[in-house]
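check this:
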Amino acid sequence: MRARILFVCTGNSARSQMAEGLARALAVPDVEVASAGTHPAGVSPFAVAALRERGLDISSHRSKRIEDVPGEFDYVITLCDSAARECPVLPARRRRLHWSVMDPGSGGGDDAQLLARFRQIRDDLEHRIRKWLFEEELLRESVAGPLAEKVRAELARYEHPLFDFEARPGGDGVEVQIKFHPPAEAVHRYAFLLRPREIENQQFPWIFQKQLYDCLHDYIVEMFTRNPQRDD
């Protein structure tokens, strides 16, 4: 087994449950993921609904105490300030992290408002988890691969005699690199990151075109700023 990851929050009902479901889907197969709470309160049906929209089923999850998930974990990630305070010495073999994430169940509101907050926190957690797993070299290759292929297919529509384009998995999405071609001298590359939600958006071709053109403009400005023309 490459690593064991534990997500902790107070109730083990929303944030840590969604984090567990997302991390299991995003991490390489030989990573074990669990979640627990300092005061378990049952799994929120809104957490189940929010992840179901991502094609993930956590309906069989149950709230657990930290004592219910024995053994040592390589990474312990607390998701709320109170959990971080209540288990300050919970050991981690490699690294302990704290992400202060808002409780989506707080603040009241009707079902539609609650679900909207759960979606917001789900997306925030997915962003954090993707980026962190990539940095730790634990991100499942098949997660980023299809997104990169979609961006490469879109890039194939664009050709320019002065620039080369490349797309590769990076961070929590796909990094697009712009390189001046052929350089008469060493010229820095320019890169921008596309988030999964941008790539999966139905308006992706239009979103991509606008971002690519904006970045090309910025890149050219940077080239002249860093390498100003000389009057010989």
